[in-house]
Write a structure and sequence with these properties.
This protein is α+β, with helices and mostly antiparallel strands. The protein is built from 22 helices and 22 strands.
Length: about 575
C-alpha cells in the first residue's frame, strides 16, 4: 500500500498523462469515472469489472505493466470531484464487492485498490484500481473479454489480431529452467517409458534412437532445453520427490470414485512423473462392458463395448495435464461416477469455445504450456489441440452416446464424458440423420443433458426443424419423433393447446362450484407436457389461472377458492 503522498503522486501522474493526450482522448490503459451505481451514474458496479478486463488487456497491448481505473475524476475535464464508492466496505447485493470482482475475473489477476481523500477533503474521495496487465491470455470478466479502443470499451473478440497479440505475450512457464535440477532428479523408469512412447511415434528412427544417450534423447523429444532440466522435464519425468523443485506449482492428479448416491468410495493422488501417473489413473477407472438393451440399436452398433473408449480417457486426461494453469497451484481432478467421467483442470479454455474447435479442423495457434504440449505430442500422449477433441466427439457419436460436455466456470475447464445412451430419441436421430454436423450434434447433446443453449443456438435448431417448445422446455421436433417411432412421446412432451387446459378448469369449477389450487393442480398435472419439471408445471398452472381471471371467467372467493364469475 502506498503512503498518502505516493497516492497523490500517482493520481497527479495519471492526470498529467491524460492532459498531455487531450487531443487524442484518454489513453487506452487509463480510465476516469466519478460515481458508481445502477442509474444516472458514471459507471455501474458490473462496469467496473468490465473495465478491469478492458484495461488489463489494453495495458498488455500497449506494453504497459499496469492499467488504471480512477473513480472521483470528472470525465473529459479531469477535475477532482470525488466518488461515492467507499472501499473496502462496499457491497454488491449481499456480497463483498471487492471479493465479487476478483471472483468474476478469469484468469485470476492481481489488482490493488488505492483509496484516499484528495488533500484531506472528504468530499473529494478518490479510488484507484491499479490492474496488472494481461499476460499470455485475455482477461475476462463474467466470461467476456473487453478492450479499450480509443476511449471506447468494446468486446475483444471483435479484434482477432489483438487476441493473437495477447496470447503471444505469454511467458512459457513449462519452458523455464529449473536452476538446481540435474539428470539425477529424473526417474530412470519414466525416461525408459518416454523412450518407448517416442519410438512408437517415430518408428522410422527406431534403430537410431537406441544409440542416443538419455541427454540427447531428452533434447530430441523437446523435454529438456540444450541439456538443462525444464519444468516440463520435472512434470513428465521427475522423481516423485522432485515435485518440490517446481514449487509453488503443484504436480498432482487426484482420482476420486463416487457411488450412485454421490458418496466418495475410493481415491488416490498421483504425483510426477506424469508419464507414469497418467497410466496409473487410467488403470483405476472401472471401464466395464456396456450392453445396448434396445433391440433397434443392436442392428446399428455392436451389442457390447467398453463403457469408455480408451482414446477418450487418455486424451481427456492428457489434455488436462498439457493445459493446466500451473500458476494456480492446484491439482488436476478425475472424478469417476456410476455412468460418467469428469476431468477438470485449472485455467481458462484457450480455444475460447468448443464451437471454434469443432468448426476449425486445424491445430490451435496458442498454447498455455507450449513446451509441455510439444513434448507430449512428441511422445504421442496428445494430438494437436482441435484434432484430438474432434476425435473424442466423433467416437462418442459412433457409440450414440452424448457428446463430451465442456463447462468453463471459475477459471476451470471441466469436461464430462457419459458412458451410456441417455435419450433414445437422440441416439436414433444419430443413426438416421447422417447430414448432422458435429456442432448440431453437440447442441442436441446438451438438450438431452438439460444443459443450457444460447438464444442463437435455439433459433438455429428451430430453423433446422430439430427442436420445438419454449426456451426452458425444449424437446425434439415432430419430424424426429416420426423418424424414430416416438410419436406418443412427442405428444406427451408437447402437451395440449392452452385452451384445452382452460376449458378443463372452467368445466371442473362448473361441476363442483369451487376448487382450490391443490385440486386444480391434481386436475392438470399429468396432462401437462412431460418435458416440464415440477416448478415449470406450477408456473404453467399459475399462468393459466391468471389468463382465465383476466378474461373475466373466474375469480378467487373465500379461502382462496376459485369460483365462476
Amino acid at each position: 500500500m502506498r503512503t498518502i503522498e505516493e497516492q497523490h503522486e500517482l493520481l497527479e501522474e495519471l492526470l498529467k498523462i491524460a492532459r498531455q493526450r487531450k487531443s487524442a482522448g484518454e489513453t487506452e490503459w487509463i480510465e476516469f469515472k466519478t460515481n458508481i451505481g445502477e442509474s444516472r451514474c458514471s459507471i455501474t458496479y458490473e462496469g467496473v469489472g468490465n473495465y478491469i478486463s478492458g484495461l488489463s488487456n489494453s495495458a498488455c497491448l500497449k506494453y504497459k505493466s499496469r492499467g488504471y481505473l480512477v473513480l472521483g475524476i470528472e470525465d473529459g475535464t479531469w477535475n477532482v470531484v470525488g466518488t461515492n464508492l467507499q472501499m473496502p466496505s462496499a457491497k454488491y447485493g449481499n456480497q463483498d464487492y471487492e471479493l465479487w470482482l476478483r471472483r468474476n475475473c478469469s484468469p485470476i489477476i492481481p489488482f490493488d485498490i488505492e483509496e484516499f481523500d484528495y488533500h484531506g477533503n472528504s468530499n473529494q474521495h478518490i479510488v484507484i484500481f491499479e490492474i496488472q496487465a494481461a499476460a499470455g491470455e485475455p482477461v475476462n470478466f463474467k466470461g467476456t473479454a473487453y478492450v479499450r479502443i480509443g476511449s471506447n470499451l468494446t468486446k475483444l473478440k471483435d479484434f482477432p489480431d489483438y487476441v493473437r497479440q495477447i496470447y503471444n505475450s505469454r511467458k512459457d512457464w513449462s519452458a523455464e529452467i529449473v536452476g538446481d535440477a540435474t539428470m539425477d532428479d529424473l526417474d530412470p523408469l519414466a525416461i525408459l517409458r518416454a523412450r518407448e512412447l517416442y519410438t512408437d511415434k517415430h518408428k522410422l528412427l527406431t534403430d537410431e534412437i537406441k544409440t542416443w544417450s538419455d541427454e540427447k534423447f531428452l533434447n530430441k523429444a523437446k523435454i529438456t532445453l540444450r541439456g538443462k532440466i525444464t519444468n516440463t522435464a520435472i512434470l513428465l519425468l521427475g522423481r516423485s520427490e522432485s515435485e518440490y523443485l517446481i514449487s509453488p506449482a503443484v504436480a498432482r492428479i487426484r482420482w476420486i470414485y463416487k457411488d450412485s448416491t454421490g458418496n466418495e468410495r475410493d481415491f488416490s493422488i498421483e504425483t510426477c512423473p506424469f508419464v507414469i501417473a497418467a497410466e496409473n489413473v487410467y488403470k483405476k477407472i472401472r471401464n466395464f462392458k456396456y450392453r445396448y438393451m434396445n433391440p433397434t440399436l443392436l442392428t446399428l452398433v455392436p451389442d457390447e463395448l467398453d463403457t469408455y473408449d480408451p482414446f477418450i480417457i487418455r486424451e481427456a486426461l492428457n489434455n488436462a495435464i498439457a493445459h493446466q494453469d500451473y500458476g494456480c497451484h492446484g491439482m488436476i481432478n478425475v472424478i469417476e461416477e456410476e455412468d460418467r467421467l469428469i476431468f477438470s483442470n485449472l485455467g481458462s479454455f484457450i480455444p475460447n469455445s468448443i464451437r471454434s474447435v469443432l468448426e476449425n479442423d486445424a491445430p490451435e495457434e496458442f498454447y498455455r504450456n507450449k513446451m509441455l504440449a510439444n513434448a507430449m505430442v512428441e511422445l504421442g500422449l496428445v494430438d494437436t489441440i482441435g484434432s484430438g477433441i474432434r476425435r473424442m466427439f466423433n467416437k462418442q457419436r459412433d457409440r450414440l452416446f452424448p457428446m463430451p460436455d465442456y463447462e468453463f466456470d471459475d477459471n476451470r475447464v471441466k469436461v464430462t464424458i457419459v458412458g451410456k445412451v441417455m435419450d433414445l430419441d437422440y441416439a436414433m436421430l444419430l443413426t438416421r440423420d447422417k447430414t448432422l454436423n458435429l456442432l448440431e450434434i453437440e447442441m442436441l447433446s446438451r438438450l438431452q443433458m438439460h444443459r443450457p443453449l444460447t438464444d442463437y443456438e435455439i433459433a438455429y435448431l428451430r430453423k433446422r426443424k430439430l427442436v420445438e417448445g419454449r426456451k426452458n422446455a425444449l424437446y425434439f421436433a415432430k419430424s424426429i419423433a416420426k423418424a424414430t417411432g416416438q410419436e406418443a412421446k412427442y405428444t406427451k412432451d408437447k402437451g395440449f393447446d392452452d385452451n384445452y387446459y382452460r376449458d378443463l378448469v372452467v368445466k371442473a369449477i362448473t361441476q363442483h362450484g369451487k376448487m382450490g389450487r391443490p385440486k386444480i393442480n391434481e386436475l392438470l398435472w399429468n396432462k401437462l407436457p412431460e418435458v416440464l419439471d415440477d416448478k415449470q408445471k406450477e408456473n404453467k398452472i399459475t399462468n393459466l389461472l391468471a389468463s382465465l381471471r383476466r378474461a373475466g371467467k373466474i375469480k378467487q372467493g373465500e379461502k382462496r377458492q376459485w369460483v365462476l364469475i
